[in-house]
Amino acid sequence: MTTDYSPRLFERDTDIRALGESLLACTLPREAWTHEAHLGACLWLLSERTDIDVDAQIGTIIGRFNESVGGVNDDTQGYHDSITRAYVAGVRLFLSETEETELAARVNAMLRSDVGRRDWPLRFYSRDLLFSIAARRRFVDPDLAPLPA
């Protein structure tokens, strides 16, 4: 695990809501779809968009966005199901434990936590399995430890 992670934080709740709405509308600029944006949008979806079934729709949401900005979802690029679902589990875990109530404060606290780290899924998956075509295309169970329930 790396030790020098310094996430880009969000200033306002409205920034996160605008990010999430832009993701859903496929109007977010490609360069704005960062690691932090992925996690901020996920937390927003889980906490404020309860009308969306994240488990059933996250692949479609991200895949559609990727294609809208000229990306491709294939065996080597674009949407990665196992990484995404690992982070969804992590964001849910974080939400169940945090005492933060404001959206930006929750997202920033999560980004500073272990769950927010870029290498967090590697606590559960070997590198070979996580970066396999099978794990990209569909969810595969972790081989090192179970994901948080």
Architecture overview:
Helix 2 (35-48) crosses helix 5 (103-112). By secondary structure, this protein is mainly α. The longest helix is centred in the middle third of the chain and has 17 residues, at 81-97. The chain has 7 helices and no strands. It has one domain. It has helices at residues 13-25, 35-48, 54-68, 81-97, 103-112, 127-130, 133-137.
Sheet-strand content, in percent, reads under 5%
Classify the secondary structure makeup into a structural class.
mainly alpha
- Average predicted local confidence, pLDDT: 96
Taking all Cα atoms into account, the compactness measure Rg is 15 Å
Shape: globular
Report the order of strands and helices: HHHHHHH
Largest sheet, described in full?
none
What ranges have pLDDT less than 50 throughout 5 or more consecutive residues? none
Helix content: 40-55%
Distance between the termini: 22 Å
| Total DSSP helices | 7
Task: Tell me the number of structural domains.
Answer: 1
Total number of strands:
0
Question: Any chance you could write out the topology, listing elements then pairs?
Answer:
Blueprint: H1 13-25, H2 35-48, H3 54-68, H4 81-97, H5 103-112, H6 127-130, H7 133-137
Helix pairs in contact: 1-2, 1-5, 2-4, 2-5, 3-4
Task: From the structure above, extract its key features.
149 residues; mainly alpha; 52% helix
Summarize this, please?
This protein is mostly helical and about 150 residues long. The protein is built from seven helices and no strands.
